[in-house]
Write a structure and sequence with these properties.
Elements (H helix, E strand, L loop, with lengths): L83 E7 L8 E3 L2 E8 L4 E8 L5 E9 L20 E2 L4 E7 L2 E7 L5 E9 L11 E3 L2 E6 L5 E7 L5 E7 L9 E5 L2 E6 L4 E5 L6 E6 L10 E2 L3 E5 L7 E5 L6 E5 L9 E3 L2 E5 L4 E6 L5 E6 L9 E3 L2 E5 L4 E6 L7 E6 L9 E3 L2 E8 L6 E7 L3
Antiparallel strand pairs: 1-32, 2-3, 3-4, 4-5, 6-7, 7-8, 8-9, 10-11, 11-12, 12-13, 14-15, 15-16, 16-17, 18-19, 19-20, 20-21, 22-23, 23-24, 24-25, 26-27, 27-28, 28-29, 30-31, 31-32
Amino acid sequence: MLVPTARRSLYVLPYTIILLAGCSRGPSPHPVPVVEVNVDATKVADAEPLRIANSDWPQWRGPRGDGTATAQNIPVRWDETTNVAWTADVPGRGHGSPIVVGSAVYLASAVSDQQRQVVLAFDRATGKRRWETVVHEGGFPDRSEIHPKGSQANGTLACDGRSVFAVFLNSGRIFATALDGDGKRLWQQEVGAFSSKFGYAPSPILYKSTVIVSADNWGGGYIAALHRQNGQVIWRKKRPAVSTYSSPLLAFVGGRDQLVITGCNRLVSYNPGTGDELWSCSAIAESTCGTPVTDGSAIFASGGSPERETICVKGDGSGQTVWSNNTKVYEPSMVATGEFVFAVTDEGIAWCWSAKTGDVLWKQRLGASFSASPVACAGRIYVPNLSGETIVFEAKGDAYHELSRNPLGNDNYASPAVSGNDLLLRVGFGEGSERKERLVCIRQP
């Protein structure tokens, strides 16, 4: 199990998210041809297995990448003085979620005035900072190339139990970096060029011996798999030259592993071992932010600009649409819990659909705006809003049953993480130049 033991700062070397619909610009001023790399199949399964416990939250949207948690005893109610185990100051700003592996919590952030993109490790029990590693210094894109709501650390980290993987946009390129348990850099690999329209948002995804990185952009999009041990590019596949921002879903659907991603007016499934396309269908929109979800047989996806759509597609390889509607869930991802699909839109409307038919079972206006994605745990849905309030409601299809509204701080762009009996939130306190971020652990005494 990865257990960081030292605190250090190395000046060497994140939802989700945060790109509004309706913004448009002309073609990319910097088109760059993408060089494809074909797989050497012997390199996909030769790394040591992931050292991840069932209760860990090792990557974007958790161990299954779908926002569902196995924990059973996280609090339903809290505030600044109730059920808060600890808080820890976070330098700079970022919108990536915390991840949890073993006794450590990891987080990516960006300190804009110093142009530093950093990875931090905290003690899970106490919140004490163990180390901070500077992954990149300098090389930030011009602020005009980042959406006003965005940050220079939008993506969530990933951890295989030995190494922590960070992916940043820097110097006009996407770089993946691996750090060990003490924050020391193991390798850094340029994945490809990136022409930024509104910034970079996707998070790395773990699969067997690889870490998978998506990088759709208007200069020439691509998706690639790197070897976890040395950063070698195992495969890289071209995607359309379109600026879109979604992380892929990795899931076992239709009897096989599939890597499914939205954007570029298509829902596409790839073989995660080779990068070969399995199937695709026309769906949703040119630009998306959310990650698809699945019930094991169908794929659910939503969001978009300029089009609006929520869709259910068979995962059997046919690409056949089961149902669709014109609801747009852009920044937040959805969550599927058996017979129901739940969503909270950017504008603050909660939806519950029948997973089988797409029928609207209920909808409820929650108020405020949302960028974070909901998580499902113990029959409840937890979702933070941009006013610093986390709403908890029951994961039921008969009606909306609100359990609590929990104010903490002034804003919350990042999606929660759940591990064991802990709920981890990245919260903004204060406004404007006075705003500071903190990592908060919600836990019953």
